[in-house]
Amino acid sequence: MAADDTDLFRPVTPVRAYQRVAEQIEERILSGDLPPGSRLPAERELVNRFGVGRSTVREALRVLQSAGLIRSRPGDPLGAEVLGVSPDNLSQALGRLTRSSVATLGELVQFRMALDAESNRLAARLHGDADLARMREQITRMESLSGSGPASLHAFSEADALFHRAIAEASGNSLLGLCARAVHEAVVEVIEKKIAGVTDTTAWMERSIAHHREVLAAITAGDGPLAARLGRTALHEYYADHVEPETRELLAASVEDH
Amino acid sequence: MAADDTDLFRPVTPVRAYQRVAEQIEERILSGDLPPGSRLPAERELVNRFGVGRSTVREALRVLQSAGLIRSRPGDPLGAEVLGVSPDNLSQALGRLTRSSVATLGELVQFRMALDAESNRLAARLHGDADLARMREQITRMESLSGSGPASLHAFSEADALFHRAIAEASGNSLLGLCARAVHEAVVEVIEKKIAGVTDTTAWMERSIAHHREVLAAITAGDGPLAARLGRTALHEYYADHVEPETRELLAASVEDH
DNA sequence: GCCAGTCGACTGGTCAGACCAGTTGAGTTC
DNA sequence: GAACTCAACTGGTCTGACCAGTCGACTGGC
To answer: For the HTH gntR-type domain, which residue ranges apply (chains A, B) (predicted)?
Structure first.
């Protein structure tokens, strides 16, 4: 132990007051002492309890709020509301990564391929009857929308999102679903308009419905590898025309490798 | 269009002053106007430019800091430093999800299986000579550490992390690497001590080295599917004993399915 | 008795001004 | 030329104030 003197003295980072306050409150929230829906004391009350100034308390609350843990509303006599842990922060972080062009569109699609494939595979293995019913329900909804033309595109993609959420929940892995959702939002932000303008929406919707039916069939049959491959194929077909040309063939290879 | 009156009026959320400030600065950072390493004006200078009070500026800076975009140091005459987009925020969000038991350890490992498998597969297809050299280098470093007992565990896992980062960079998909890293940090946070206490570190290191050698061989040979499966196997072997019993067999199934 | 309106006691959001401890670099001293 | 001093910064914190919004209790008229 004495030989490893790199661990004896570590660089000391002064801990700011607002950090201590934020950590204490965050700890209470994560530990469950402050369940979602409960209220924090008023700011001026927190000032008394923590023995710091109001600006310090406010900076701490700001940090928690930007992390999506609490929400405050002016004039609310009950104090800030505890929201609990939400995935919004996650998708926010992913969104930043894409907007700063750390990640390209091709990388996003490829990333989502991996996530969706794993979700589908797990869902095929673990699904319950209720999960299947919810997926069927969304497909039915898509079918009823497919004739309405471009106006219903918004409702259609909502049904699509719900279908994928049903798969994610059936997979039993919340992380997969959350990340896939975040990436999906990031992708939509980048190319939604492009697709809406270029594509023949009716034909696109019908092909999309066909894909979803295939995936549902594979999941129902318990064929995980097939469901995974179908998920990749669908993403490739949707987005291949819109990614950067140099990554296009790589995406195709991602489908074939499985 | 007129039929879809849900989009005509949207709920209005008053935008706080500190939000506007934070958004403006964040926009400049993400757009590249403020590259990493550059400096923000001093707080009192921002007060003048934005025409708001210092507390407002400070709350905005606090939000950006908690998002990992900037870092400020007391007494620094250059002002806050722009850090650029980093995955720290991502791993922080993942850590919160696990600590609040929204996501279990098993889900984390399963998630990382999907990411690592995809990274390995892509790396096998796209690697350059420099990537292979860096992987070899880290394996050599692990070998030199494997005899030193528990004291060098820290350095060993650092080499391990660098090995995986080399794979991620070889894969050409930054998102995969960043997420894998975030998940890895979250996992480490949960069970690092457990592993350090329970396991025979020397034997564990040697098995780990053997795994890494196999993965490197598969990548060098360009065998993507094999590299992917090896990645899953390695994770299963490392963590299977530490995840919740009810998810253990599911992890094993994740390996076999591929 | 009930309902509408008023009013005051809160809330969070913002601002101004002050002080502190730390950093830095220019000037001073030896 | 090296060491020291010091003033001009920085960010971190506190105080006290004001505003607009919210809400509950009180009060008026019916």
So the answer is: 15-85
